[in-house]
Amino acid sequence: MGDFVAVLICAIIAFGIYKLFELFVRRKERMAIIERMMDNGGGSPLNGSLNVDLRMNSSNLFTSLRFGLLLLGVGLGLFIVGLLHLNYIPELNGDERWIYKEAFAFLYFASPITFGGVGLLVAYMVEKGNRSKDRSAD
Predict the structure, then answer these.
(1) Is 69 in the same domain as 40?
(2) What is the DSSP letter of 1?
(3) What pTM value is reported for the model?
(4) What is the DSSP letter of 57?
(5) Do the Cβ atoms of 45 and 29 come closer than 8 Å?
(6) pLDDT tens digits along 42-73
(7) N or C, which terminus of the chain has less Cβ within 10 Å?
(8) CA 43 – CA 96 distance, rounded (Å)
């Protein structure tokens, strides 16, 4: 369990660093937009002076689906390994027990990644099917 906590803490730190960099990049983008507005006479970004496309991008529509299916896959993977861990570890001593613990440590790492990938593949298939329906409707 201690290894899982260490991996979780590392993942949280990496996510925090990513969000910090994203924050600085967005700030630079906002400053560039403000400078463009000043160069164009201080117009509103909604009146077309910045050529901003206000329509919803099709990739933004499926972000929650992707994220939801990814988390569903990770949760399902952890659930399955947890059930296996509770039901299939025999009462052994010494080296034999160590081998089982190492195998399950690997499964706790690999299973969420595998099921998360499957979740992303399902999201891709749904998105692809929806896009083909939209193109045939046009």
Answers:
(1) no
(2) -
(3) 0.51
(4) P
(5) no
(6) 555 555 555 555 455 555 677 888 888 888 98
(7) C
(8) 73
